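Hi P.,

Sorry for the delay on this. The queue was packed all week, but I finally got your sequence through. Input first:
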Amino acid sequence: MRLVLASASPRRAALLRAAGVSFEVRPADLDETPLPGEAPLAYARRVARAKARAVHAHDGETVLAADTVVALGARILGKPDSTEAARAMLSDLSGRTHAVHTAVAVRVGTRIIGRTVTTRVRFRSLSEADIARYLSTGEPYDKAGGYGIQGEGGALVARVVGSYTAVVGLPLEETLVLLDQARGALRGDAPPPRKKAR
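Then the structure:
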């Protein structure tokens, strides 16, 4: 199976390589602005599927796309565009539990199969010095929620309930199952029964 990763994320690429998956990177280019009143989980699913559709695929290619959303209640925490925005996000997350929704979509021909994984992450209580120290690393600015759990941001986290790799950007277990299903579809196997997203 020739796989196309519809993402420029080095973290997703690293996870796939670690799992022994070969792929070509072909990032999707689309507007990722949330719709008015859109819930975080619905937003993640919509954007992942839109990314899978947006990438041109040649015959025989399978497209893998994903979207990770950090949500504090019903509020979507995107990538901070300034130091003040990053500081505000980290302050809001301090001592609280938030959800990380990662939706995965795999396109085979015109058919898209997908899964959504939700992980609960609790931050330890952060002092102003803790936040200032983390801001000085430069990590927060290209990451949803303003932190990277796989980097120095891991020191901000007290507990993870669910898939760690989903927080990094790609739930590996669920992604590998979807890729197996895609291989079956390419062989003409009967489609598997649909499972409810977690």
